[in-house]
Amino acid sequence: MESWLFLLLILAVGLIAKNTSLIIATAAVLALKAVPQASKLFPMIQSKGINWGVTIITVAILIPIATEQIGFKELLSAFKSPVGWVAIICGVGVSLLSSRGVGLLAGSPEVTVALVFGTILGVVLLKGVAAGPVIAAGMTYCIMELFSFAMK
């Protein structure tokens, strides 16, 4: 019963904040939870969902290439500007943070609750986008490693 209340609270927060992504995601989980045998899908969705999401985001990112809005000329121009270099470095950094974050989430699932709560706060209070839990986990991993190193 607690999970239903928690999910309904998150849905209410999404509705109050008018955050479509949070509303759809929560409604989908509630709908799945309502189907008797669907709970058997939860472990698979939990373990593979991040990869599915990354794939969907990657498809969206590649569409401008397919529609010829972005080509080799734009890629080469990225190497000619400071913002292009910063974007390349940030892209590398985010991918490294994400890989560490996935490891942290797998090894410390209790961190997921804090990350979800932090993401919801960022989305609702600061009008952020809920695309960063894996990156947030990676940042958490790095900070915890720094604390661990400092404590030695």
TrEMBL record:
One of its GO terms (cellular component) is plasma membrane. InterPro entries: UPF0756_TM (IPR007382). The chain crosses the membrane at residues 49-67, 79-99, 111-144. It is a multi-pass membrane protein. It comes from the Bacteria. The keyword Membrane applies. Keywords: Cell membrane, Membrane, Transmembrane, Transmembrane helix. Pfam families: DUF441. The keyword Transit peptide does not apply. It is found in: Cell membrane. HAMAP family: UPF0756. Belongs to the UPF0756 family. This is UPF0756 membrane protein SAMN04488559_10397. The lineage of its organism: Bacteria, Bacillati, Bacillota, Bacilli, Lactobacillales.
